[in-house]
Amino acid sequence: MSYLKTIYLVRHAQPLLNTGINYKVVPGPGLTEAGREQAREAGQFLLNCGIERLYASPLERARQTAQGIAAATGLPITLEPLLREFDDPAESKANLLARLAQFLQNIQQIGVSSVALVSHGSPVREVLTMLSEGSLDFKPYETSHGNPVTPAGIWQATRRTDAWFLELVFQPKAGDWDRFKSPVQIKPRQTSFEIA
Predict the structure, then answer these.
(1) Is the pLDDT of residue 27 over 80?
(2) What is the chain's mean pLDDT, rounded?
(3) For the residues 38-62, what does the mean pLDDT come to?
(4) 26 near 84, Cβ under 8 Å?
């Protein structure tokens, strides 16, 4: 049985704002035209990355981002409620952490080595924090609202011996935000998520 070696953490692409649709409740708003282009770019980046499973939050902006990736990779999308947006103040941070930890445990049991997760800023940040055991400094990467990556940006987490190696590997060209200077690679301490 193979074990999980690589996780691609994708923040959803640029969403429609000011639509009157509740942003944190399914279905939530979809993507802008620029967001759909960002999703296509993310799909092209992930095309040759060896991804075996594609998971997405059920919120429309994440689902549409995953569709752009699926169109390029040919992978089916598995909608996963555990990847949904953090619903502050309706949800505690402890609950967010518990559901993300449960999801990480679940995917380690499925026997694949590489997955892509399409989620939201808060869940992406918390998964990165878990994998780095809190050692990742987000300041060089933060965008609006403290998000750890631009819309449709991708972090790669690679299991190396007893630790996860984290790297910001992709930012789409479509969009109207400042680009990060350059990705910084960190080698965190051993993760607390053991893989059988």
Answers:
(1) yes
(2) 87
(3) 97
(4) yes
> From the CB of residue 91, how many other CB atoms can be counted at a distance below 10 Å?
15
Query: What are the distances in angstroms from CA 146 to CA 12, 120, 122, 125?
Result: 15, 12, 8, 9
The residue with tokens 């979809």 is 30
User: Do β-strands 163-170 and 154-160 pair in parallel, antiparallel, or remain unpaired?
Assistant: antiparallel
What is the structure's pLDDT at 146? 83
* Superfamily covering domain 6-170: Phosphoglycerate mutase-like (3.40.50.1240)
More confident residue, 70 or 178: 70
